[in-house]
Amino acid sequence: MPEYLTADQLKQILDEKLDQKLIPLNLKVSELSTKLEDAMQFIDLANSKYEEVITKLNSHEIARIEIQEENKILRSALQQTESQVLQFKNSYNDLEQYSRRECVEIQGIPAPDHPTKESTNDIVMKIASKFMDIDITEKDISVSHRLPVNKGYKGNRPEPAIIVKFVRRDTKVAFYRARSKLKNKTTRDLGYQAANGIYINESLTEMNKALFKCCLKTKKDLNYKYIWTSNGRIYLRKNEESHRIYIKNEGQLTKLLS
To answer: Is the separation of the CB atoms in 97 and 210 below 8 Å?
Structure first.
């Protein structure tokens, strides 16, 4: 006869069997719990780092905005300073040009071997009386002398110009206006061996000389007919029918060329 198990015995056997089956599963659950805990710790750390990064980014953005504002202020201040410097340069240039209002420069006159061998005053008076029908005496001339030649000049060096400062502005104006009478004259007519052309120009500041050089190029590029100075101001004129253009800066030349 088979032995019958009691209900308690059967329950014990089933519990033992179930426990044996659940052991691997419990191990897996425990392992997963550990991994889940590690993952949660990593997520917490990542969230912490993310918040830290966001905080830093926000502070950097604020700093960037502050730097941009500071740069705007600095650029504005720099522009104002540059504008003031330009105004100062222009004012200084105008003042220097005004100080030359009684001056002209004579170009083309051959220079002697030694400066003491010539009288630039005599040259001025001779040009005035021989070619211009103007009576100029020593009393009309404040000072005259040769100008130094720029050492950086490339090519054949021109004859150093003679600068003349007249005592009165009206004498300078008369002398300068009569320069057209020198059109067909050369230095040979003054007794020199060389036959150089004689040119009379207003005495310009270095800044105005540079501008005049640019104007000459523009005149050539645009095929303008006239360029001249009057009281240190530079003028361009396309032809007899057109209006004169007072050139104050290179920006005007750029507009003419565009």
So the answer is: no
Number of other residues whose CB lies within 10 A of the CB of residue 190:
17
pLDDT mean for each 10 residues of the chain (258 residues): 64 69 70 74 75 79 84 88 91 94 95 83 96 95 90 68 96 95 94 94 96 96 95 95 94 93
Task: Examine the domain organization and report whether 159 and 85 are in the same domain.
Answer: no
Q: How does DSSP assign 13-33, residue by residue?
A: HHHHHHHHHHHHHHHHHHHHH
Residue 48 falls within a domain, yes or no? yes
Nearest to 183 by CA among 132, 111, 223: 132
Q: 139-146: long-range contacts (C-beta < 8 A, 24 or more apart)?
A: 139/167, 140/166, 140/167, 140/168, 140/171, 141/165, 141/166, 141/167, 142/102, 142/166, 142/167, 144/120, 145/120, 146/111, 146/115, 146/120
Which candidate, 207, 244, 243, 242, places its Cα nearest to that of 228? 244
Give residue for tokens 């009379």. Answer: 200
Q: Confirm whether 18 is domain-assigned.
A: yes
227 in Cβ contact with 236 (< 8 Å): yes
Report the candidate in 157, 160, 128 with the shortest Cα–Cα distance to residue 141: 128
Phi, psi at 28, each rounded to 5°:
-60, -45
Asked if 227 contacts 214 with a C-beta cutoff of 8 angstroms, the reply is: no
Which residues are registered as beta bridge partners of 201?
105
Q: Same domain for 109 and 198? A: yes
Q: What is the pTM of this model?
A: 0.69
Q: Domain of 224? A: 205-257
The reply to whether 78 and 108 lie within a common domain is no
